[in-house]
Amino acid sequence: MYILVTGTAGFIGMHLSQKLLSLGYMVIGIDNLNEYYDITLKRNRLGILMENPNFHFENIDITDIDSVKKLFESFPFNKVIHLAAQAGVRYSIENPFAYLDSNVHGFLTILEACKDYKVSHLLYASSSSVYGNNKNKLSETEDANSPVSLYATTKRSNELMAYTYNHLYNIRTTGMRFFTVYGPWGRPDMAYYKFTKSIIEGLPIQLYNYGNLKRDFTYIDDIIKGIMLLFLHEQDINNKQPNEVYNIGNSRPYSLNYFINTLENVIGKRADRIELPMQLGDVVETYADISKIRDATGYKPKIELEVGLTNFVRWYVDYHKEK
């Protein structure tokens, strides 16, 4: 079975591709290797994947309609897992057009290819940011029509586009709202990565909203577990509900201050904290209600924060050769 993973050089894309390869799938990965963050990190992730003979990589931008079409003509994809996107909430305020290009135009290109080449199931990455500043535990039944960043708007647009293509062309689609993913090989633009770098190097860290934020930090292995359960339970889930969206999170939000305290203990060094006002486009709290994916697949996250951060810091020190 040929599986297409878009954004395969990304954080989640790399880990997911590794999992699929370990199960014997033929994985075709595409990525445009843009310079939003360190391209060397992306190439190193790819280097690990390319050690497996069942992995094939193409440097393709998902907005390039002709290249995407050629790819779908070359491989008989049974399923597509679409992770490629312009990431980052705050960057979307500075560079809004990059998000429309990649996250809307690019997603439309993938939808059209899935329609034209009869792909049986499209799984795609959405985000907890679609909930905006909704309070309390965030359920898929909650309103998700008040996003507070353009990034979130594009992700909500993806969900609506998937609904339309399911309605018009009977394409099975599954949206996955990820909640603050962290772990080894993570993204350098994420707060936990920046905090780790600054604490180790003795630099101050910036805590927005004066540290009064909560996040449903979810370890990468638990995210991959959720994706694979939806991937493998596709027949059971999608027969009656061919277009669905699921939260994939830890369902246990941690305050930013608790997170920093735990990170300090793991590193063995105190942080110099600078408290700042809330940033534009940010949300106060994320808290995943995971009852829907749990009831559908048996999903249950297992990795505790201290374990996840220990794994991340160990990887970070080894990767960056910090002393």
TrEMBL record:
Domain NAD-dependent epimerase/dehydratase span(s) in chain numbering: 3-249
Q: Where are the transmembrane segments?
A: none
- Do you know which Pfam families this protein is assigned to? Epimerase
Signal peptide extent? none
Keywords of the record, alphabetical order, are: NAD
Would you tell me the protein name for this molecule?
NAD-dependent epimerase/dehydratase family protein
